[in-house]
Write a structure and sequence with these properties.
This protein is mostly helical. The protein contains nine helices and two strands, in the order ααββααααααα. The chain folds into two domains: about 35 residues, no CATH class; about 150 residues, Orthogonal Bundle (Cytochrome Bc1 Complex, Chain D, domain 2). It is about 40% helix and about 0% strand. The chain has a two-stranded parallel sheet. It comes from Haoranjiania flava. This is Cytochrome c.
Length: about 220
């Protein structure tokens, strides 16, 4: 027993000495398993990506950094409730865009709390182009005085936008359309469907928010 006690004391003393030799600062950070993911390349929103570094062409993925804002085909996020069955059209084709008209909105009508939340998300993601009033006159256009030359779509007043089915609008938000990019990485599937509900409610004049459009426009312009 005495020998075991002596050995135990020696071991504890050795550990104490070793612990006391350091100051608790780790000098060696170790190795990063996947440095290209750990040290991600940053880019500014609404700024054209450097074509020498990035590409949206999957055929050039081996020579450049492939990035197109879209989720990996066939995957569903952990929080994803729905699978959109329509894939993105190939360049120059519009078959799937037309077919998306038949897809129904799986989300139920918005509650007042959901409407207010979608109003907030609309201002964050869409208002800078389409305007707080959905009139296509956001700060980037600003009546023709902004950096955008062409006016974004008037979601509230353009008959084509009012008549656009939910599925086709969802397709545009998910994959992008013309100069508008994809918002699949900014908004979940559920949020995108609810955002379509919000737009349709504003078009019909059946929604109301605690925020006033004038104040929202001023807030966006200030940013």
């Amino acid at each position: 027993m005495k020998k075991l006690s002596v050995i135990a004391v020696l071991i504890i003393s050795g550990i104490t000495i070793l612990a006391g030799c350091g100051n608790g600062i780790k000098r060696n950070p170790g190795k990063v398993y996947m440095p290209d993911m750990f040290y991600s390349r940053a880019y500014e929103t609404y700024v054209e990506m450097d074509s020498t570094l990035f590409t949206t062409d999957s055929n050039q993925a081996g020579r450049k950094i492939f990035y197109n804002n879209l989720p990996v085909r066939g995957t569903v996020s952990r929080a994803g409730e729905y699978i959109f069955p329509i894939p993105k059209d190939a360049i120059g084709d519009s078959t799937n865009y037309v077919a998306s008209k038949a897809v129904q909105n799986p989300e139920p009508p918005l509650t007042q709390a959901e409407y207010d939340q979608m109003h907030r998300l609309y201002l964050i993601n869409c208002g800078i182009c389409h305007g707080a009033k959905l009139d296509g006159n956001g700060p980037l256009y600003n009546g023709g005085n902004g950096p955008f030359i062409a006016a974004p779509k008037n979601l509230a007043g353009d008959p084509a936008m009012i008549a656009m089915p939910d599925g086709q609008m969802f397709y545009s938000v998910t994959y992008g359309k013309n100069t508008m990019g994809s918002y699949a990485s900014q908004l979940t599937t559920k949020q995108r469907w609810q955002l379509i509900h919000y737009i349709k409610m504003v078009q019909k004049g059946t929604g109301s928010s605690s925020s006033t459009p004038a104040a929202d426009s001023a807030a966006i312009a200030a940013k």
